[in-house]
Each structure stands twice: as C-alpha cells, then as structure tokens.
Amino acid sequence: MSEQGALTGRVALVAGATRGAGRAMAVLLGAAGATVYATGRTTRERRSEVGRPETLEETAELVTAAGGTGIAVPTDHLEPEQVRSLVERVDREQGRLDVLVNDLWGGEHLIDFDSRMWEIELERGLRMLRLGVESHIVTSHFALPLLLRRPGGLLIEVTDGTAETNRRYRENFYYDLTKNAPIRMAQCLGEELAERGATAVSITPGFLRSEQMLDHFGVTEENWREGVRKEPHFCISESPVYVGRAVAALAADPDVARWNGQSLSSGRLARVYGFTDTDGTQPDAWAYISEVALGGRKADDRDYR
Predict the structure, then answer these.
(1) Is 191 exposed, middle or buried (0-12, 13-18, 19+ CB in 10 A)?
(2) 250 forms bridges with which residues in the sheet?
C-alpha cells in the first residue's frame, strides 16, 4: 500500500478523471504526493453527453486537498489535437510523465443488454467503441513518448472485468469489445514498453459504487448497504476509493514491472498490497461472481468480508 509522500515529485495523467473510479484514482495518487493532471469533458461551464453533475474542477480540488497538486485540463480525448496540446502542456510544465491512467469511457447511456448486435443502432455501437477504445489509443499515442523519457514509467488501462472473467460474453456485442480491448492493449503495450524500462497493466474495479450507481440504487455511500434489498449482489460492491488505492499502490511499487502485461483487479491487489476499502473490508467482486452469482451458492456473511 502506498504511503503519504511515496509519489512526491512524480507526475501522473489521469485521463477520464471527472467522476467514479477515475476521480478516486486521481485523488489517491495525489494523496501519495503526486502532481496529477486530471482530464475529462464535464466542467463547471459545460456538461458532456453523460449528463452527470460532477466536474473536472472538483476532481482537481480534491487532489490538492488530499495533499497532491491537482490540475484540471478539459480535454476531449477523441480530438487528437486536444490530446497533443495536453501532453505538450505536461511536458512544458513538468518535463516528465511517470504514470498514465487511461480511464476514458462514459458510454453507460449507450448500453442495451436486451438487444442483439444487428438490432443495435450502428452509430450507437460505434460510439461506444470510440469512447472506450479509440480514446485510449489516441491518448497513448501522444503520451507514451513522454512517459518513456525516463525509465520506470507506468501505463494503466482501466476496464471492466479481467482477462479470465471476460472470457464470458458481456451481454452486449459492443460493450464486450470495448471492455476487452484495454486488456489486450496492456498485453500488447507491455511487450513494447518493457524494452524501454516501462510497464503496462490493465485494472478493473469490482461492483463499483460510483455516483451513478449510488443514484441508481437510491442510496449514498453512507447507507449503501440498503441497496442490497434491491439487488442482493450489491453486498460485494466497493467504493471508488478501493481501486484508487490499488492504482496508488501500483504507482509506488518499485517492483511494478512484475505485473507487466497482466490483467489485475482491485480485489486481487488488495490482498497483495494490504490495503482495504473505506470500511476496512477487502471485497473481491470478480471472485464472488464466479463462485456465488454463477456458481449458485446463496450469498451469506462470508461475502461481506
């Protein structure tokens, strides 16, 4: 688990840091002392197509309040020139980039799990791929040369599911492709970055209690357990802080190269690095899904640990 000050002097770019896991990753990197460039499309002046109220400026302020330096840079990562300008700014102001987190997504409103591929509007499906795949590619294209300027750089591809769990069909053709692509990106880039002394991994949270998910269940982070009445499997959910701590632990690990090319999860890394969620537990949603939700065993007290 990373300690306060473990990332002092380090520079991180969290692409897609407006809310949810991305915001938590930015804040926890800041809490460890990093300078964090937080990007996204929703600002106090303008909302993205997602339509959520959380803003990029709030994220940067939370990073600074946690002990780091938060810098908000509104960026549409599907616009190459905006991304080029972003990386040039990081280079001009810091002269280095140590951690790149590709947490770009924002396509939940496009998902229809009840329709087959040929029934989904093509534009809708391709938009999902652009938001969750093309944006990652554009960002890495411009940011990796700066990351590689110094040995020890870390690329983190954020997705939903692990290489193992995503062998199952994710119930929507476009969503399946979108969430498997970052896993493969980390594998491929791990091969290319290793020879330059850098590391690439993919990471997934479990059943994430994002702001959007809390709203869906009509609960808050303080009373989230009431959501179990609506969905029993909500018992294994986790706060965004959990995966944020996972990312901070990876960034502070001097032996992070041992993970190169691998598909990781917050639950797995919690056992390795010893961090917990905000309530002191170490939930592992993906193990739970395999053993309980798919295995047929009824959830009990064991699933809350």
Answers:
(1) exposed
(2) none
